[in-house]
Amino acid sequence: MSYSKMSLAKPVMRGLLGKRLRFHLPIAFALSLMAAAAFKFGVTEPRKRAYADFYKNYDATKEFNNMREAGIFESVRPTGK
Amino acid sequence: MVRERRDLYSLPDAPLASRCYSHSKVETDEEFDARWVTYFSKPDIDAWELKKGMNTLIGYDLVPEPKIVDSALRACRRLNDLASAIRILEAVKDKSGPHKDIYPYLIQELKPTLTELGISTPEELGMDKL
């Protein structure tokens, strides 16, 4: 048999997927958790705060009367009509 | 002919293969390989057993050793199944995934067998291109 090039060494043939998962799964989980945390603290918490701040000193009756005077209701007319 | 109940206990199925952290005995790589070589070496292996064996083998997280592939190719020869022989070569190439060094090594180790049995590789047939 003629050796035109060195014969190939035996590569690793077992556990290739396991190795890949052991490497990539923790990263995948970490990135997913970071994405969830970023969304929570970047979007949902500010949104919840905005709503809480809006309604903290909200006077429903005053707002209702403003709307009534603006004439947007059908069930109650502005005072004076 | 109806196969009512295949005796799956004769399969070298290996729920214990590779990594098993339960308290059952762990099989070594050599024992695993030997079982599969024996499986395909059955002189009167039939087409179903060949296909079942290959499908089970391909399900594992490993690329079969050259000696296992050799045994499977010889089983194909006994069954006059050239198509399956070439398919087996395609399958082990696919199992290698991104590791491009495995398939050339396998072909290198299997070259004598491929020549002896007259099996062409998918590459020689131009079947590796889309």
TrEMBL record, chain A:
Location of this chain's protein in the cell: Mitochondrion inner membrane
Family matches, as Pfam families: COX6C (PF02937)
Keyword terms, alphabetized: Membrane, Mitochondrion, Mitochondrion inner membrane, Transmembrane, Transmembrane helix
Claim: Membrane is one of the keywords in the record: yes
GO cellular component: mitochondrial inner membrane; respiratory chain complex IV
Pathway(s) the chain acts in: Energy metabolism; oxidative phosphorylation
GO biological process terms held by the UniProt record: mitochondrial electron transport, cytochrome c to oxygen
Primary location: mitochondrion
PANTHER family: CYTOCHROME C OXIDASE SUBUNIT 6C
Role played: Component of the cytochrome c oxidase, the last enzyme in the mitochondrial electron transport chain which drives oxidative phosphorylation. The respiratory chain contains 3 multisubunit complexes succinate dehydrogenase (complex II, CII), ubiquinol-cytochrome c oxidoreductase (cytochrome b-c1 complex, complex III, CIII) and cytochrome c oxidase (complex IV, CIV), that cooperate to transfer electrons derived from NADH and succinate to molecular oxygen, creating an electrochemical gradient over the inner membrane that drives transmembrane transport and the ATP synthase.
Subunit organization: Component of the cytochrome c oxidase (complex IV, CIV), a multisubunit enzyme composed of 14 subunits. The complex is composed of a catalytic core of 3 subunits MT-CO1, MT-CO2 and MT-CO3, encoded in the mitochondrial DNA, and 11 supernumerary subunits COX4I, COX5A, COX5B, COX6A, COX6B, COX6C, COX7A, COX7B, COX7C, COX8 and NDUFA4, which are encoded in the nuclear genome.
Name of the molecule in the record: Cytochrome c oxidase subunit 6C
UniProtKB/TrEMBL annotation, chain B:
Topology in the lipid bilayer: Peripheral membrane protein
GO biological process entries: mitochondrial electron transport, cytochrome c to oxygen
Keyword list, A-Z: Acetylation, Heme, Iron, Membrane, Metal-binding, Mitochondrion, Mitochondrion inner membrane, Phosphoprotein, Transit peptide, Ubl conjugation
GO cellular component: mitochondrial inner membrane; respiratory chain complex IV
InterPro entries recorded: Cyt_c_oxidase_su5A/6 (IPR003204), Cyt_c_oxidase_su5A/6_sf (IPR036545)
One GO MF term: metal ion binding
Keyword flag Transferase: no
Keyword Transcription listed: no
Compartments in which it is found: Mitochondrion inner membrane
Recorded superkingdom: Eukaryota
Subunit description: Component of the cytochrome c oxidase (complex IV, CIV), a multisubunit enzyme composed of a catalytic core of 3 subunits and several supernumerary subunits. The complex exists as a monomer or a dimer and forms supercomplexes (SCs) in the inner mitochondrial membrane with ubiquinol-cytochrome c oxidoreductase (cytochrome b-c1 complex, complex III, CIII).
Function: Component of the cytochrome c oxidase, the last enzyme in the mitochondrial electron transport chain which drives oxidative phosphorylation. The respiratory chain contains 3 multisubunit complexes succinate dehydrogenase (complex II, CII), ubiquinol-cytochrome c oxidoreductase (cytochrome b-c1 complex, complex III, CIII) and cytochrome c oxidase (complex IV, CIV), that cooperate to transfer electrons derived from NADH and succinate to molecular oxygen, creating an electrochemical gradient over the inner membrane that drives transmembrane transport and the ATP synthase.
Family, similarity comment: Belongs to the cytochrome c oxidase subunit 5A family.
This protein's name: Cytochrome c oxidase subunit 5A, mitochondrial
Gene encoding the protein: COX5A
